[in-house]
Amino acid sequence: MEKRRVKLGVLPVLGAAPVFLAAEKGFFAAEGLEVEFVTIQGAGAAVPSLAAGELDMVFGNYVSFFTAQSTGTVAIRFVADGYHANPRTWMVLVAGDSPLRKPADLSGKRVAVTTANSLADLTVKSVLGTSGVPVTMPTFKEMPYTSMGEALRDRTVDAAVLSEPYITEVAKRYGALPLFDAAAGPTSEIPISGYATSAKYAQTNPNTIAAFQRALGRGAAIALTDRTAVEQSIRGYAGVDEQTAALVTLVGYPTSLDPTRLQRIPDLMVNYGGLKEPIDARSLILPSALSRHLNQ
Question: pLDDT at position 296, please?
């Protein structure tokens, strides 16, 4: 194996449970790997560190990875799928006393996202674009998930795009209410996040990546079958309490990286101006990720 220490940039959302479980259960150690978790605000903010070699891999939203590929910031290779949206796991929330009642009410408003020009923007634009009424696209304001509840309360934003466990946490702590599911209609069950590296790292560290994939797969198998283990894990890495962990809606944990499903992302990006030219998603997926089911 080429490298035994892997620096992984990761946003501590529910979708990251498999990689944290893999660490907690000793699966990485069993492969001879030590994974250092580096907390990031979003994939877009972490891409420069990936390009510079300061991070070996990043867990984050696919839009930021395709953007990095298209702009030449870094040649992206996908190591594994992370998670896809189930109903009510990728939501737009508003304050409990907000006058906003339907997606079109977001026209021209301020929406909190972890990073701009990311999947959050894309899914909101997609839902508003199919609302059937003329709308002015919102202004997107960057902030961590942990700041969004206060921002809604203090009216510095009108809405926020959140993932679990922060949907449940912000609703419970701040009384926020769902405005709409950002993964509905054209974005139903859309792939949210995955694990990416640079083409350079992938070329020089194939055995390290294979070991990472095997250990991650064992973590994903637990996430798929043991809700209690997921709840215990997110209480640690996401810092939520026992009640919040018990209430979260679980996301979808794929057992393989499906190029057809992933292709939905760059296609939507082209439709909404996020990409000037189409990208073939399959061309960025490592053969080992295409052929390996994570639970094998």
Answer: 47
Under 8 Å between Cβ of 96 and 155: no
Q: Measuring CA to CA, which residue among 111, 119, 178, 189 is closest to residue 148?
A: 111
C-beta separation of 30 from 22 below 8 A: no
The confidence score (pLDDT) of residue 112 equals 98
Sign of CA dihedral 275, 279, 285, 290: positive
| pLDDT value of position 88 | 95
Phi, psi of 200 (to 5 degrees): -65, -45
| pLDDT for the residue 255 | 81
Please state the rounded mean pLDDT for residues 203-220: 97
CATH value of 90-187 in 3.40.190.10, 3.40.50.620, 1.10.10.10, 3.50.30.10? 3.40.190.10
Distance (Å, whole) CA 23 – CA 34: 8
pTM: 0.93
Q: Which of 253, 251, 195, 245 is nearest to 224 (CA)?
A: 253
Element (H, E) at 59: strand 57-61
Report which listed range, 22-26, 128-132, 181-185, is most confident. 22-26
Which fold, 5-84+190-291? D-Maltodextrin-Binding Protein; domain 2 (3.40.190)
Query: How many CB atoms are closer than 10 A to CB 56?
Result: 24
